[in-house]
# Entry
Amino acid sequence: MELFLAITVGGLFAAGFYCLMLHSIVRIALGLVLLGSATNLLIFTINGLQRGFAPLVPEGQEALSPPFADPVPQAFILTAIVINFGLLALLLVLVHRAAQETGTDDTRALRTELKDSKQ
Amino acid sequence: MTPSALLSLPMILCLGAAATGLLTPSRAWPRRWLALMTMVSLSVVGAMLLVTVRREGIQSMQVGGWAAPFGITLVADLLSALLVLVTGVMGLTVVSYSAATLPSSKEAGAYYPLVLVLVGGVCGAFLTGDLFNLFVWIEVMLGASFVLLALEARQEQLEASIKYMSLSLMGSVVLLCAVGLLYGAAGTLNLADLAVTVPGLGTPNLMTAVSMFFLVAFALKAGAFPLFFWLPASYHTPPAAVTTLFSALLTKVGVYALARVFTLVFTQDAQLTSTLLLVMGGLTMVTGVLGAVAQYDMRRLLSFHIISQIGYLIAALGLLTRSALTALIAFLIHYIFAKSALFLVSGATARVTRTYDLHQMGNLYRTQPLLAALFFIPALSLAGVPPFSGFFAKLAVIQAALRAENWIIAGTAVVVGLLTLFSMMKIWREAFWKAPPEDQPQEPTRPLSLGDGVLGPCMAMTLFMVVLGLGAEPLLELADAAAGQLLNPEEYVRAVLGGRP
Amino acid sequence: MNPVVMHTVARLMAPVLLLVSLVLAVRGHDIPGGGFVGGLMAATAFALLMVAFGRPAARKQLRVHPTRLAAAGLLVALFSGVPPMMQGRPFLSGIWARLPVPGTDGLKVGTPQLFDLGIYLVVLGTAMSFILGMARGEDTTAPEMGG
# Structure
């Protein structure tokens, strides 16, 4: 299972970096989404997959009884998802505005438009 | 006040003031004064923290009382405390400059709360004791910087903002990967705990691989070669106050993080990291200054100089000796002030001439004598001319390189210093000295005086530089003590983990 | 979809969602839940209203500007960490007390619940500012007028 997930992580990274090299800003943003998911899956996988209880101390007990899942990577992933989501939302708002003002989402066109507007 | 309260205060102050600012009615004055007062208190807290650390050693605190390495740890050693103090002073400078230059419609908006969030994020990054929270604070700071850059962005700023955001997000992905891989390998992210566990892991090659992830991520944030291109593409677009804030704080967090992880955690393959950092630093110096030589837009030119000065810092880190780290810290402080002074002056110049294009300026030496003086001193200081702070800082770097018998870095540092002087002289000649272009309508402009509020912050920065130049001894002494703490992690570990080995 | 169904469902579900979100936020210290999921759930309640009645109606139901909501939440969360500092303990340490409520063995209240409430407001405010921000300019296509 770990091997399968490792290959998936690799595939996601490859797809993400491929998207980053395209000229459409929307695809670049999608590439960043893919990279974010790949990273989260990486953190999920890296600790090894095992079956365990939720890391919550049951009623009436003082400590956890093993096997319990490591809560730290889950906390990382949750935080990372929130941050990634927030920043991407900002990026998308910006892309939306750029598209509204210039009528294109092509990075090359955006740059030539700039040259035109300067002259 | 207890030291543990002092450690959490910078972030509480900044974030609390940002939230309060957003709750006040949308007018300029309450938000402006709130930001000013917060920055003053932040500077005071930074100074108190520095005094405490100097007197009583490294301070740490566990947020919520959860013991390290399980909880969230805040740590202040001399370097962190010094940087928090500088952050407070820079925040104060930028806010007072903004109050003098920005239109009140902008001041009434989310501008000051965003600046406060950014400064809070920077302080958090300097004070945090674990890598995941370093990531979180860097993201807080980046998020605020995104909005500041894009706030009312004009069309040409949109492309810059998009470029800046996508590259920063990519850097964050790399950093997060590094953090995840390190947690998988070491089972902890607390810096002090890592300093103890990583040498005993028995997988030095894996650690080296992970450390390279951190190197790439932080080098991107610092704007080092070859990952610097986002910086000159975006830094010249926002108002001068924002550029100053970015140039003073954002890239420094990258440098600070590099210094922290490569002195505390990844010491297992010092040879490799040192070589890489030296090569990176040398190339950053050279590409930055060569990029600057070709520029005729004042702020673009200064942005390229940010990169070249970052090169000095990274090269000094690569030498990894005590004298080199001393030089690194002294240079860092000097350069935050020098670069900010230059950006603030460029903003003031643009207010007078309504352009950043050097071709269209001229004769400012006669029409704006005070402005000319305020440009001249930081420019010489940045280039490393005595008796200003830059001379001692640069001398310290070169001496450290010579002492480490690294002739290439020493030679590069000297040559880049000369080229910096050349490029500063270019601004001087074009903007201040030469006759103005003839097609330019010459309206007689009143000379700016200190009473305008624009020059006050520039004046303060320049004064700092003169004081740091004439009284370099105490700064170097402090930097030496801070470098000593960086090179001997035992005190850091003891401060965080207590009696544990 | 028939707007009548949509409207009825939204009108019925939104208060329920809000109530559940509060329950989640309050019980979250010792069992699954917490301010974060609570805030998200509350945001879905308003998102549902927006889908059914359009953006202006949802904004009106929220009453406060979302940014201010988030700011107030941040203040509450930060403030919850201050009382322990007065006692000389680290920032955000929990202080718990039992309120004597008749019929039970005391109601457990403490500063972490205040923190959760702050996070609830931050998440609700931030999520709403994103949702409302993205829906701006698309109101014409939203099924606004149901009859």
